[in-house]
Amino acid sequence: MGESTGKSQGYAETWEGGFIRHDSKGRKVYVIRRMINGRSYKVSTRATTLRAAMEQLKRFEADPEHYNPAGSAHEAPIYLDAPLAGEFLAYSRDVDKNSPTWVKKQQGYLAWWADQLKGRDLRKATLLDDILPALEGAKARGHRIAVLKRVYSWLRKVKHVLSVAEDPTFGRLTVPQAKPEQWKRNKAIPREHYLLAREHLAPHWRDGMDVQAGTGWHVSELVRFARMGSVEPYRGEAEEIAGVLVCPQSKSGEPLRTAVSAEVLEAGKRLLERGSFSFEKYGLAIKGACNAAIIPPFTPGRFRHSVATWAIEKGADPASVAAFLNHKSPSTTRRFYATHAVPTKVPTLR
Questions:
Q1: pLDDT in the model for residue 152
Q2: Which of 86, 73, 141, 72 is nearest to 114 (CA)?
Q3: Torsion of CA 334, 336, 337, 342, to 10 degrees
Q4: Cβ 42 vs Cβ 2: under 8 Å
Q5: Which of 36, 309, 333, 341 is the most exposed place for a label (fewest CB within 10 A)?
Q6: Where exactly does CATH 1.10.150 map onto the chain?
Q7: What is the structure's pLDDT at 253?
């Protein structure tokens, strides 16, 4: 399969297995070119990363005549065992650039799935017989579904060892949205509680809290900023803005730039000077500060909700708050982050 006796031609980019071409979208596609036992082979791996291409090259070299980048029904079964889970987690960490916290959670969910699908070939697992029964009554159902879907997607798109037809999650299993009752809980931190807890924090953790309170960033963004963020000057005319904190990458892949006050700017600079920030230790420090202040404990993940609520209750336009929090739509801000904000009062008859 993939045999070609076409005339050799030069390519600007090469790799260990052959050459690299570009598809219609400009992405690199790795092509195998080999001469084996007098026969010339030239076949696309369909891989767009070197890591995936090397996996394909191993499969090709094992059986050049019957090599198929999409896999075949005659290949060895795929089990969700420790080696496969370890390879996926390495990809999640190194290529998907997921946070250590999420990778650790993925590891736990993979262990759970490995137990549920023990001895089951992932190519032959079915939604009705294997996956949905396992999810019945399971906690964190959305996360478990998301992890399994990502594993199958990785097997299809990166390792190219199964087809869409062999993926029981493709187009049939969706990650559930948050339940309405979750939106009814008030996640905003009372401002006085924030100030009380702040007094019981060590300077480093206090700086982190001040940056979150001044930006509405996720904790993962705060950690990335401390490790490899930057500060830019503010070139506008608003007196309350002293500078811009730059988080190197947001979910969309673009740097996240947030205008901040002088106090938050200085806190950000101190975080950059230190260069590291522990997600876990930060949460524990805030919990300890809440206990010391004798207030209900809150987690740093609630600051995003709090910033949105505080801003709208002070009269900020939801569209402006959405732009500040890097939301694509103001409806996201209202639906998920400012559900308990009280709109500014308008003139009435009484």
A1: 96
A2: 86
A3: 50
A4: yes
A5: 36
A6: 82-176
A7: 63
The segment(s) of the chain belonging to CATH 1.10.443.10 are 191-337
CA distances from 83 to 70, 72, 154, 285 (A): 21, 21, 15, 36
pTM here is: 0.48
Tokens of 141: 């159902």
- Tell me the three-class secondary structure of the chain, residue by residue: CCECCCCCCCCCCEECCEEEEECCCCCEEEEEEEEECCEEEEEECCCCCHHHHHHHHHHHHHCHHHCCCCCCCCCCCCCCCHHHHHHHHHHHHHCCCCCHHHHHHHHHHHHHHHHHCCCCCCCCCCHHHHHHHHHCCCCCHHHHHHHHHHHHHHHHHCCCCCCHHHCCCCCCCCCCCCCHHHHCCCCCCCHHHHHHHHCCCCHHHHHHHHHHHHHCCCHHHHHHHHHHCEEECCCCCCCCCCEEEEECCCCCCCCEEEEECHHHHHHHHHHHHHCCCCHHHHHHHHHHHHHHHCCCCCCHHHHHHHHHHHHHHCCCCHHHHHHHCCCCCHHHHHHHHCCCCCCCCCCCCC
Distance in angstroms (rounded) separating the CA atoms of residues 289 and 215: 21
CATH class of the domain at 191-337: mainly alpha
pLDDT averaged over 10-residue windows placed end to end, the chain, 350 residues:
42 86 88 90 89 87 81 73 95 92 95 94 91 90 94 92 88 76 66 94 95 91 92 86 85 78 95 91 95 94 87 79 72 50 44
* CATH node for 82-176: 1.10.150
